[in-house]
Amino acid sequence: MNYQNNPFPYHVGVQSLHELANKHSRVCIMNIRGTESSLVTPVSHAYSGGNVVAGVQYGESSGTFETPVGDIPVFGSISDVIRAGIHFDTGVIYLPPSAVSHAVSEMCARNVNLKRIVIVTEKVSARDSRLIRYGCQNAKVDVIGANTLGIANSWDQVRIGGALGGDVPTQSLRKGSVAIYSNSGNFSTTISEYLKTAGFGTSTILSSGKDVYIHFALAEFLYCAENDPRTKAIVVYVEPGGYYEKQALDWISEGRFKLTKPIIACVTGRWKKNLTRSCGHAGAMAGSGDDAEAKEIWFDDFFGVPVFDPERPEVSKRGVRIGTIQDVPEAVTACMELMGENPDFPSTGDLSLKPWFVNDQDLTMPQQLRMHPVRAIAPYGEEIEKFNRLVGARIMREPMRNRSGASAIDPADFTISLHGRKLLDLIEEPFGAVTVYSVLKTMPDAGQMAVINPLLNWFAARGSENIATVARGRANGCTPNASIGAEVLLAGNNPLFESLRATSSWLIDRFFHETGGDLSINEELIEKACSDGEGFPAAVEDPRSEQLAEYFGALLRTHGQETILTRFAQACADKRRAEGEPVDSFTLLVSAILLGLAWKPLAERRIAREVAQDLGTYLGLNGIIVGVSPVNPERNPFWQKLHALMDPTVLSADFASTCFQVLFNRVPDGQELFTFNGLLNLTVTNGPGTLSAKGAKESISARNHIATAYAGFLANTGLAHGGNGFESVSYLLDIFSETDPYQGTPAELDPALKGLAARATQDFVVRKKKAKIEGVTERIPCINHPVFRDKPVNHDPREVFIRDLLKGKGIVNPFLEFYHHLVTELHAEGLTGNVYCVNVDAVIACIALDLLWKQLRDGEIGGQEAQEIVFTMFLYGRMAGVSAEIADHLSRGQDLDCRTNPGELVYLA
Amino acid sequence: MQLTGLKYGRRLLDLVEFPVSQVLTEDASHDEINELIASHGGKCIVKPVFLGGVGKKGKAGLVRIVSNVFDAMVAKRDLFFAVHHQGNREVQACGVTFEGYVASDIEIYVSISESSEYRMPVLLLTTKGGVDVEDVPPEDKRTIVFNPVTGVKSFHINDALRELKCPPQYISSLVQHLPKLWQVYDNYGLTTLELNPIRMGKVKGRYVPFACDIKASFDQDNPAWKRLGYPEEIFSTTITQFESEINVLRTHQGQSDVTEVNPKGTILPFIFGGGANSAATEILGDRAIISSDFGGNPPYEKIRAIADITFKHWLPQANVVLLIGGRANNTNIFTTFKAIFDSLREHIRLNPNVFVVAGRGGPMVVEGMVYGRDVLDGLRVPYRFFGHDSSMMSVLQHSMEIDTFFQPKPVAMAPKHFNVIAA
User: Fold this and answer.
1) Which residues form the ATP-grasp fold succinyl-CoA synthetase-type domain (chain B) (predicted)?
2) Which of A325, A699, A872, B27 is surrounded by the most beta carbons within 10 Å?
3) Same domain for A731 and A696?
């Protein structure tokens, strides 16, 4: 080919874009094992048909670098490469910035056949760049970069340098007639993607870099484009700073070299003129005459037409400037039409807004901003579909030691939250609802609770079956956590849990994608699912199954809680029974009910699929804890009825009421149920560091069954933990040993409590003095707090909240009121520097004592039983919180992630 | 990184014994100022001290020539905290200098910088200095292109001065002193060094060029400037607290360039790539809180640290968190999205009512978007993710429309408050 005479006042070693990178290029890569090269070189090498002939890795005398198309030999220096008889004309540098100029020197000095160097490295200093320029000009070597992504030739399928075209270059780099010159590596690929929407591919793409020095600049590129027969138009993307573009356009205008092909130029960065240091590209810092506006004028003057308007496309033979790169397809089309050129291939897609993922959650957007997901272009659409077929949340696994994705402590006020809701806000929710919320992160509504309460009670009834284990433990002096824990541990992965899990999984596979998360009844779908019983989980029929299925079926109908799942469960059971197939209609229905509760959080990807499938296991284990926990089962008629389950109506009670009756052997009045329910909710968790939850999480991290993890929680409770408020109960019993706060009128109560507080204070003075002599510390339980302690009068906001809540319901807890008098007295006597707060542990103790007082007073229960009841109350509350932590850990934790780092272990002699 | 003025600039010139007019700082005593005035023909110049690169002080009336201590003190009072506007940037002085007045019938301008035209360092020289060099006609200035290895030589200066018809009595001393500037420029990582004006004073009967003002720009990517021992705070006006926290993360593996655009903005953009940075910041305008370039395939730890700092500073005020870039070549989208969404999950309590918009393509883009989707669904934060088959500019426009929807408006029209539940 006859080229124009090289017009440059400096060395430019190529005449055509094709020469920059082609199938004959032979490449040597410096720092081939560097982080970026390790990722990019194998792809480039494979795409380019194996054009990397050698790599250099300092400190390595021999070796190979693996790629999909064969190994690349690695040497310790360029000299070694040359000595090995390997010839290359192109060097690529991936070294850190300070090493770049040295590597350039090495390449120029050691390889006389070197034609060009591509410097991928960012942040090469201006000083090194000018030395590189000087050295390479003398050595007659072209330099691309620094901070370049290199060169790509879509015709020869060759790329040299960085990752132009990404990890699958064949997708972006489609053969065509447009050359791209871009200050931005990313835009090099993005523009080639945009071009495809108008049916244009690329000839050569050059990412020039945008350092202060651009060694292979626009003038050289345009000259080479003119000489390149493959190229019919040139897209140019530039930013402020430097006169490279002006020089190129001036030289064309002056006739220094010829350009007959149109340029489509985009200049961005008007805002950068206010910068005093670079952001993004180092060289994109403008002086007074080379800012974005100046560059726009250079191009506009050259083209002779105003900036491209897609509505009224006007271009000249010299080209046109575009406002943004999204106008590339239309502007190139307009220029090509003017030149009488056709697109390279049929257009692929368009650039309109096509969201791949959309969720406005509960936000109501105005009509014009509403969007629906659009299937992504190939191959991404299929990939997304594959992910969408996965049900529920997918959470990255990470170490969970001392961490929780379920509970949190607000550093501002030390309040605890579970799944983002503060426990104080949960207090008034039904405890049964909280046990479900703990697992599913979604609070059931009142309608759902009409079915959930009986279901939880049924789990308790079912859980009570093996109370003999607990009786044996109690006889052997076990604490409640131990005896209950033994039964929980033995539950393992019992047939009920396994059946509920397997059935839930089967239902998910049948219905989740079919319904799209909608639980509305769809008879056609039910019919279809009924006729396809493939993989239906094996079932063992239960003699009570029919009766219970009927009872719950009626509940569902009465309370409008039927779903496609429950209706299917009933229809399927009928069908299988009619066909003589084994079916446990009640287990099937329970699975359908539980899965219905999990459906929304599952569809919203708030919980993992496994959590939804395990809901029956969590609630079943809670049922065991409640079912086996009565202190005197043989004297508890409510429990007897529940245990026998002759009449399903025993299941109709509120779950908190069931818990109360199992423990206290009496029906709670309204106030009692309110405070008991609140107390359970208050003790659900103590945040990510909760000791009981740690037991469960450590067990889970060892990959145990959920039941074993529950046993871990129970094993981690004890007289010091879970006897929450024990100390306080004991203290209060002493104080009130001769005073019954429930005797007398309300008017008499306050002075009496004040008197008790005064006496308790004086008693404390004596005990404190004595303790001082003995060198020990004397303290009163449940007052003061490490955070709420610096004001003249201090309050624990959690205690204040509950006290106000109780007062709002007309409930006065005399023990709590006593505590408030006590902290005031202690300060008045000078025993405390300010008025201490009454902390939240006092609330728990005071409520427990309030509930137990009458039975204690009347001798219905003794101290030992009271202790057990208080302890078991704590276990009830905590079982809900622990289920949340276990579900969280199973969803996102790793095996053995709760181990202590060996470096933190200490041996004590 | 820039500095202006002789308070700090003279250290550069002292390194090569380039003469500088006498400079006293704001703590100078009356006696010292009196002496300065007396030894400089009865005049001294009072200038405000600005940190960073601040020019055109004279045009703004912020340079005073005084002839007695009283007037010097008045000028000090007026200029000590003077406010100066450059473009849309407002800067405030933090002191003054008292500089000896050098009587001269000529003012020289000289600068060294990198030339994109010649792709070499150049020295620009005129004897009609004291004004913006752009205002000097071409025939009155000369550009000297020289070998960057050997530096600018005396003969270059001599030739240029003669062409400019510099009065001959000044040529010898200028030829002697001006080449020294290359040593400063080359050895301490400068990208611009400008003395304007140099005034020709007389010492022991010989003319000496006294630098009366200086402007210098340093290359962030060349650590040589650290050898000068300047206190970090002299560059502090150009770096905000947020920027300085991010700058600590600056390494060659992955970009971490940020600039505060509008501390009252409502769109918080994580921009990937220099091109996207330029284009996105332009379109977002004042809506953008920051401009950033977090491209270059940053590792998880780096982008996570960046996101932590960014959310800590700006999430509370953001309506829209925007992740924007073209189709990445090398940046792993899963890694960057995971780091940002992990961080968002940790910081969401600072502002649960945020909308997330992402426009991105590249390696593992689907995995990155799926991860973001799962996190945001868990947080109940609304979002839209666009691939590279949507125009980046349209995604930017769309995020601005969403931001507009969130702007304060009458209560009845305000967006419904989300019921956010943390994962």
Assistant:
1) 29-198
2) A325
3) no
